[in-house]
């Protein structure tokens, strides 16, 4: 495989590995927690390095995961005092832990491969040069094996605990009543997020980890209501952002991680604008339609109220509606035209008359039956 293909494979695997736990972070309202974890795990890496003196030791990964769990514990303990809100607790805890790690690196590990910029931004272009070659047999980039292993572990845990995750995410009280342990599920999720974050440090950096954990799941949330579909759509969008981001970065000679993060943001932006049910455009269209339907119902009520009165000749004229109902003439014309198209009224010259369907609509509105 040529390096660009390997880079794309690493990017796709990393993106999918990040999006799967990210779905549950988004559904649980824990998006900011991902940012806190991806920064705070650096402290676990640094402390573990001081013990083992080896940046390639798996003990660093375990220590980083423990550091992520510790971060969430500290945030929750601070929040439970009710002296600060959760977002403030996050803003207090993770900068503190991250700053301690930065100070320790500067003072005690300045000559090692523990670079703060690499942790934040990563460098995916260099990932293929670090090979996994047991017994001298080249099996591909080490980052691909690492993130592939994390992805497989995530998929296995997701398959084994899907029911518990789903129930604890949507109704923690019911999960507790049924004998599940929402707290264990919660900290298990935090552990996977921490593991994924530290695994992606060397390749994409913590900034892109946050982007991939939040943007594709948030976009998928706008596109579907089913958890299983949300997981699949989120993984697909993450993979798409990874591939397109790599291509854009190669064309523009720009940061691969930056391009992938930008594509993830663009994917969310498109979903936010054009999602069929929850997109901004769909909401605007629905608002216009509901306004038209409400105005049509009010027009039917107005005509029903006046059609048998001596003032009907005036009150039922289209030209009089603007004054009586305080509607703009152009809006009156649209409402009358739509009502006529839907068989609510008949427009005889300038005089409006309800049909049987229009009278039923007016009566339903008066009785509070109109949806």
CATH class annotation of the largest domain? Mainly Alpha
How many β-strands, per DSSP? 2
User: Could you tell me the radius of gyration in angstroms?
Assistant: 29 Å
Mean pLDDT: 84
Share of helix among residues?
over 70%
For the record, the count of structural domains works out to 2
State the CATH superfamily name of the largest domain: ABC transporter involved in vitamin B12 uptake, BtuC
Distance between the termini: 60 Å
Q: Could you name the CATH topology of the largest domain?
A: ABC transporter involved in vitamin B12 uptake, BtuC
From N to C, what is the helix and strand string? HHHHHHHHHHHHHHHHEEH
Sheet/helix structural class: mainly alpha
* Name given to the CATH architecture of the largest domain: Orthogonal Bundle
Low-confidence stretches: none
Q: Specify the oligomeric state.
A: single chain
Query: What portion of residues belong to β-strands?
Result: under 5%
Widest sheet: strand ordering: 1-2
User: What profile does the largest beta sheet have?
Assistant: 2 strands, antiparallel
What general form does the structure show?
Answer: elongated
Note the total helix count. 17
Give the gist of this structure:
The protein has 371 residues and is an all-alpha fold. It has helices spanning 3-27, 31-52, 58-80, 86-108, 116-121, 142-160, 162-170, 172-177, 182-199, 205-223, 227-252, 256-274, 280-306, 312-315, 318-325, 329-341, 356-366; strands at 345-348, 351-354.
Please provide a written account of the structure.
The chain folds into two domains: 3-275, Orthogonal Bundle (ABC transporter involved in vitamin B12 uptake, BtuC); 281-366, Arc Repressor Mutant, subunit A (Orthogonal Bundle). The protein has 17 helices and two strands. The chain has helices at 3-27, 31-52, 58-80, 86-108, 116-121, 142-160, 162-170, 172-177, 182-199, 205-223, 227-252, 256-274, 280-306, 312-315, 318-325, 329-341, 356-366, and strands at 345-348, 351-354. A two-stranded antiparallel sheet has the order 1-2.
């Amino acid at each position: 495989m040529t390096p660009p293909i390997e880079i794309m494979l690493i990017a796709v695997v990393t993106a999918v590995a990040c999006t799967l736990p990210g779905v549950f972070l988004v559904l649980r309202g824990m998006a900011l927690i991902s940012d806190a974890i991806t920064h705070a795990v650096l402290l676990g890496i640094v402390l573990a390095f001081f013990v083992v003196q080896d940046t390639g030791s798996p003990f660093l990964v375990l220590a980083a995961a423990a550091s992520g769990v510790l971060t969430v514990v500290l945030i929750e303990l601070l929040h439970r005092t009710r002296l600060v809100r959760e977002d403030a607790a996050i803003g207090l805890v993770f900068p503190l832990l991250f700053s301690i790690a930065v100070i320790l690196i500067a003072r005690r590990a300045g000559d090692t491969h523990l670079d703060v910029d690499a942790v934040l931004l990563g460098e995916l272009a260099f990932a293929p040069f670090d090979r996994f070659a047991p017994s001298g047999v080249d099996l591909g980039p080490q980052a691909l094996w690492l993130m592939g292993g994390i992805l497989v572990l995530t998929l296995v845990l997701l398959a084994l605990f899907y029911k518990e995750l789903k129930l604890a995410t949507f109704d923690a009280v019911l999960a507790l009543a049924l004998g599940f342990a929402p707290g264990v599920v919660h900290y298990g999720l935090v552990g996977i997020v921490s593991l994924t974050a530290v695994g992606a440090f060397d390749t994409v950096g913590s900034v892109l980890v946050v982007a991939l954990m939040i943007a594709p799941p948030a976009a998928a949330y706008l596109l579907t209501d089913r958890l299983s579909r949300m997981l699949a759509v989120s993984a697909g969008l993450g993979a798409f952002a990874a591939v397109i981001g790599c291509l854009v970065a190669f064309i523009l000679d720009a940061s691969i991680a930056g391009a992938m993060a930008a594509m993830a943001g663009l994917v969310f932006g498109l979903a936010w604008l054009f999602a069929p049910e929850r997109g901004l455009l769909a909401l605007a269209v629905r608002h216009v339609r509901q306004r038209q339907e409400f105005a049509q119902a009010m027009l039917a009520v107005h005509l029903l109220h006046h059609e048998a009165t001596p003032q009907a000749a005036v009150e039922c004229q289209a030209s009089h509606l603007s004054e009586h109902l305080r509607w703009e003439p152009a809006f009156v014309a649209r409402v009358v035209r739509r009502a006529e198209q839907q068989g609510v009224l008949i427009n005889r010259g300038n005089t409006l008359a309800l049909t049987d369907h229009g009278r039923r609509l007016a009566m339903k509105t008066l009785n509070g039956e109109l949806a």
